[in-house]
Amino acid sequence: MQVVRGMTSPEIHFVAALEQFEPAEAVRLAALADRAGFAGMVVADRFQPWLPSQGNAPFVWTVLGAIGQQTAGLLTASAVAGFRMHPAAVAQASATVAALYPGRHRLVLSAGDAIDEHVVGGYWPEAPERAARLFEATDVIRKLFAGSVKGNDVRHAGEHFRLETARIWTMPDAAPPLQVWAGGPVTARRAGRGGDGIVVQAGPATRMAALLAAFRDGSRDTGRTQATATVHAQVSWAPTDAAAEQQALREWPMAGLRFPRGDIRSPFDVDQLARSVTIDDIRARIPVSADLDVHRAHLQALLDLGFDTVHVHNVGRNQDAWIDVFTRDVLPHLTK
């Protein structure tokens, strides 16, 4: 079913969780979501799943290229620069997607999690250093994009990264927008000063409002007016409340962990830690319900805070049914 949205409709993007689906299935689901009316597709760069039972972690750039062939909307990749992949390699991958699909690609950078990035054997730094590396990587990629669009080589010698006479030879006419994940007001403000947008995890309204305000302040500091604020929202929907609870506990118990999971190194460790999670822990953080009005109200509340775009991830494997009911009974009623 194709949904026709009005001028005030927000951007709602479908998250294809590559931890949960084989590459061909992720591409099929993205194509289905695109036809149904989602404005874009979102995939994340993972080297391991969160849980052994999820069973997948394909290479994000290959999957995103295939998704682009089957869809017409925006293509967002959430990537980590500076551990498994140097910022120059991430920039090259992003530029290639943008060249293949002009005007459709967005790059999101995050500080990363040990479960993915520790595999190359380097020291896993503390959070402040991870933030510093994130913003230096952002600067490196921005330099590469800007220089390569003009056909110039660029150099960089920083605390964490170096570039020597580098340019991206396959480059679109305009560089893709570069957004940054932010978990606190300091990183949110820095993202506003230097990036084209921010992405935050859905959480308490007061926390998200503070992050959004810090981001807007940072944008104003540098006179930027076009930066995009995005929120990543997880939900658990199924035809019954009991089924929604069961899939949340089975598929995404990480949502209920009471501590950050960025330092955990193994899916088997996550599995052990998640065994203490209860459905009340998960309900405290994401909506778990068969009632579509619950999910509509949750997403509308995020938009009412002032976010421009919502990335929606239903945590179950029931994606066909979710796409059908969401685009029929939720998406048409969301407004910005």
UniProtKB/TrEMBL annotation:
InterPro entries: F420-G6PD/mer (IPR050564), F420_G6P_DH-rel (IPR019945), Luciferase-like_dom (IPR011251), Luciferase-like_sf (IPR036661). The keyword Ubl conjugation does not apply. It comes from the Bacteria. Residues 20-278 form the Luciferase-like domain. GO terms for molecular function: oxidoreductase activity, acting on paired donors, with incorporation or reduction of molecular oxygen. Keywords: Oxidoreductase. Pfam families: Bac_luciferase. This is G6PDH family F420-dependent oxidoreductase. The lineage of its organism: Bacteria, Bacillati, Actinomycetota, Actinomycetes, Micrococcales.
